[in-house]
Amino acid sequence: MLGICRGRRKFLAASLTLLFVPAITWIYLFAGSFEDGKPVSLSPIESQPHSPRYTATSQRERESLEVRMREVEEENRALRKQLSMVQNRGLSHRRGNHSKTYSMEEGTGDSENLRAGIVAGNSSECGQQPAVEKCEAIHVAIVCAGYNASRDVVTLVKSVLFHRRNPLHFHLIADAIAKQILATLFQTWMVPAVRIDFYDADELKSEVSWIPNKHYSGIYGLMKLVLTKTLPANLERVIVLDTDITFATDIAELWAVFHKFKGQQVLGLVENQSDWYLGNLWKNHRPWPALGRGYNTGVILLLLDKLRKMKWEQMWRLTAERELMSMLSTSLADQDIFNAVIKQNPFLVYQLPCFWNVQLSDHTRSEQCYRDVSDLKVIHWNSPKKLRVKNKHVEFFRNLYLTFLEYDGNLLRRELFGCPSEADVNSENLQKQLSELDEDDLCYEFRRERFTVHRTHLYFLHYEYEPAPDNTDVTLVAQLSMDRLQMLEAICKHWEGPISLALYLSDAEAQQFLRYAQGSEVLMSRHNVGYHIVYKEGQFYPVNLLRNVAMKHISTPYMFLSDIDFLPMYGLYEYLRKSVVQLDLANTKKALIVPAFETLRYRLSFPKSKAELLSMLDMGTLFTFRYHVWTKGHAPTNFAKWRTATTPYRVEWEADFEPYVVVRQDCPEYDRRFVGFGWNKVAHIMELDAQEYEFTVLPNAYMIHMPHAPSFDITKFRSNKQYRICLKTLKEEFQQDMSRRYGFAALKYLTAENNS
């Protein structure tokens, strides 16, 4: 609406100017052509030097009038052209969404501290700005390193995807951690018309490691300086963003600003919105040199092709070397060096309007930038305090950020209609598999879940693991949803070794988990726990997919396949490490069984030894797991023998056997067709038996199941007849697949099933 009003005002002003300026000019000229009440002829024939009316003064006046007439003619032509553009823009506004391209708002480019040359170069032009073509790819570069930055960049990407109408090409300069996390995330996100390229940040360290830097971003905060060298040589322009940015508009509007660059302008930047570079924040504050307030590098427009021609690499290096002789180190990483270069070469910068980088730093003056929240386009959380920064309007900004933080990323998988997209092999295979399913099949939803690609964020929290030198380490593997979150602290107290957890959460629940974990001293003190978020999609709990995700991302040679409802005995971690050596698990196909028990009491004095457990078993405080509802599940463990056993003993597979086992890292995955409740572990143990694993019960190990409310999936199993029918169908299909894969040896599973 504001844009339409501005267009009407410009149209009216141009119309009036076109009408009145020529009229006034000709009246002035006509009046000036009379001398003593008689007309003065401007004809060169009548104005001979020998004419008695000719004087030196009249000659100068005539020449002055001719020059003025030519200027008026030029102004008229410019005004007509301008008026035509305003009319065209008005038509474009009236067409609204029928237009295939859209024009962008103009930047102001003004600053009290700018040199005259920059002000002139950045002044707003009257006329239609070049539009961004509908299917033009927009290139965005982001430096991202570590676990926290990988989490932050997701919110930035969500805000960009939410508003975008163009294909996007992200260039991610990432360390090994961020690459692993983000490569998996984007691969499983499967957003159409989005391309991701990674560049090894660790290889770039040598380019900037010579620069001492005090900024909390560390060495990665300097890597924007080397983008001309890092990004492809054929890439001409790119938008560079910090990870703590949130977009409130279509990024194509910012991309369109490239068309406003003139002459040698190669950097698009917003003025710094604090007094940092003015040097008056505290006594003896000595910032790097900058032009006025300087510029903030959270949002940068880079004309890469021109920067390369200008020898940008040499330019910034020489400047940095010179300034470091007196400054000794940077305080604001790359921003200090960018500003020092601009101070010496002000013609390089095109000043972006302040709303393209509203900075929420500790000493910000950003509220002077906007009159209304509708003016805001990019929010920059450039304080180490992030969301806790003190600002007059921080609540509004925080709510905007939280909107994208908790927004369901699956909703951003929308097609850009009319734009050809690159062939995605994974997406094509998925569509082919889904097309082969019968939608009229009553078990269609069960079958479809097997092929559903769930968006996955690995290592949601910081993770550190040092491999054990003796190569005997064991990782506890489990999966959970939000209703089992309270088990995490107890498990961490019982198991000191590495843990790999897959959490099935929505975007909003993932943030609740983050706040819970960050508020827990127990969880924050443990860095060897890998939390992998698998985002919710579909109507079933993908239990075996979750187990596979947790299994796939362990760093140890062995793993203990557990469930989140179980507490391992104290000292089980060290006991298992000794057992894998004693039973030569490295060179044999064994599955070591940890006997499972349960209590019906929410408050339990956990047994500290096998003798104490047997006493509680005799008193009825503990029971063998599921003895009263599903005896077959653990009966082959032979609890009677376990009571007196002092050495490991072998047991045979039986139908419906589902013990908790310790296996090598290379054991087969769980079968994804089983979702929700029923047969998910049974099928896996059957697969181990088919691959000739030997089941060995550990005599001095145990785990106890803690009580909880029934899960939603077991409730569906009990109440929904069709659920049970589909589960039976999936069991039969699994057994048929086993027969095809393992031949005659798999016949015993069919026989055992029929006899059970």
Automatic annotation (TrEMBL):
UniProt biased composition (Polar residues): 44-58
Keyword Transferase: yes
Catalytic activity: 3-O-{beta-D-GlcA-(1->[3)-alpha-D-Xyl-(1->3)-beta-D-GlcA-(1->](n)-4)-beta-D-Xyl-(1->4)-Rib-ol-P-Rib-ol-P-3-beta-D-GalNAc-(1->3)-beta-D-GlcNAc-(1->4)-O-6-P-alpha-D-Man}-L-Thr-[protein] + UDP-alpha-D-xylose = 3-O-{(1->[3)-alpha-D-Xyl-(1->3)-beta-D-GlcA-(1->](n+1)-4)-beta-D-Xyl-(1->4)-Rib-ol-P-Rib-ol-P-3-beta-D-GalNAc-(1->3)-beta-D-GlcNAc-(1->4)-O-6-P-alpha-D-Man}-L-Thr-[protein] + UDP + H(+); 3-O-{(1->[3)-alpha-D-Xyl-(1->3)-beta-D-GlcA-(1->](n)-4)-beta-D-Xyl-(1->4)-Rib-ol-P-Rib-ol-P-3-beta-D-GalNAc-(1->3)-beta-D-GlcNAc-(1->4)-O-6-P-alpha-D-Man}-L-Thr-[protein] + UDP-alpha-D-glucuronate = 3-O-{beta-D-GlcA-(1->[3)-alpha-D-Xyl-(1->3)-beta-D-GlcA-(1->](n)-4)-beta-D-Xyl-(1->4)-Rib-ol-P-Rib-ol-P-3-beta-D-GalNAc-(1->3)-beta-D-GlcNAc-(1->4)-O-6-P-alpha-D-Man}-L-Thr-[protein] + UDP + H(+); 3-O-[beta-D-GlcA-(1->3)-beta-D-Xyl-(1->4)-Rib-ol-P-Rib-ol-P-3-beta-D-GalNAc-(1->3)-beta-D-GlcNAc-(1->4)-(O-6-P-alpha-D-Man)]-Thr-[protein] + UDP-alpha-D-xylose = 3-O-[alpha-D-Xyl-(1->3)-beta-D-GlcA-(1->4)-beta-D-Xyl-(1->4)-Rib-ol-P-Rib-ol-P-3-beta-D-GalNAc-(1->3)-beta-D-GlcNAc-(1->4)-(O-6-P-alpha-D-Man)]-Thr-[protein] + UDP + H(+)
Principal subcellular localization: Golgi
Pathway: Protein modification; protein glycosylation
Topological type in the membrane: Single-pass type II membrane protein
Keywords attached to this entry: Glycoprotein, Glycosyltransferase, Golgi apparatus, Membrane, Multifunctional enzyme, Signal-anchor, Transferase, Transmembrane, Transmembrane helix
Region (Disordered): 43-62, 89-108
Regions that span the bilayer: 12-31
Compartments, record wording: Golgi apparatus membrane
Molecular functions per Gene Ontology: glucuronosyltransferase activity; xylosyltransferase activity
GO biological-process terms attached to the record: protein O-linked glycosylation via mannose
UniProt xrefs under Pfam families: Glyco_transf_49, Glyco_transf_8
GO CC annotation, single: Golgi membrane
Homology family: In the C-terminal section; belongs to the glycosyltransferase 49 family. In the N-terminal section; belongs to the glycosyltransferase 8 family.
Protein name: LARGE xylosyl- and glucuronyltransferase 1
